[in-house]
């Protein structure tokens, strides 16, 4: 599929970045979804 070591290296780096971002999003998403919104938080989000 790849003709050189450079192509393999770039593909490995790209896969690592995508997998890492997916893992972080999977860990952070549920943590932020469980927070209770308060009126002060709503005002900060609007500003």
Secondary-structure topology with pairs:
Blueprint (H helix, E strand, L loop, with lengths): L4 H29 L5 H8 L1
Report the uncertain regions: none
**Cα distance, first to last residue?**
50 Å
- Helix tally? 2
Order of helices and strands: HH
Helix content: over 70%
The structure class reads mainly alpha
Choose one word for the global shape. Answer: rod-shaped
Biggest pleated-sheet summary: none
**Rg of Cα set:** 19 Å
* Rounded average pLDDT: 77
Range of strand content? under 5%
Number of strands: 0
Characterization of this structure:
The chain has 47 residues and is mainly α. It is 79% helix and 0% strand. It is rod-shaped and about 55 Å long. 0% of the residues are buried.
Structure described in brief:
With 47 residues, the chain is mainly alpha-helical.
What are the defining features of this structure?
47 residues; mainly alpha; 2 helices; 79% helix; rod-shaped
């Amino acid at each position: 599929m790849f003709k050189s070591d450079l192509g393999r290296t770039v593909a490995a780096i790209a896969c690592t970045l995508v997998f890492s971002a997916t893992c972080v999003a999977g860990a952070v998403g549920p943590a932020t979804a469980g927070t209770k919104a308060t009126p002060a938080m709503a005002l900060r989000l609007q500003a």
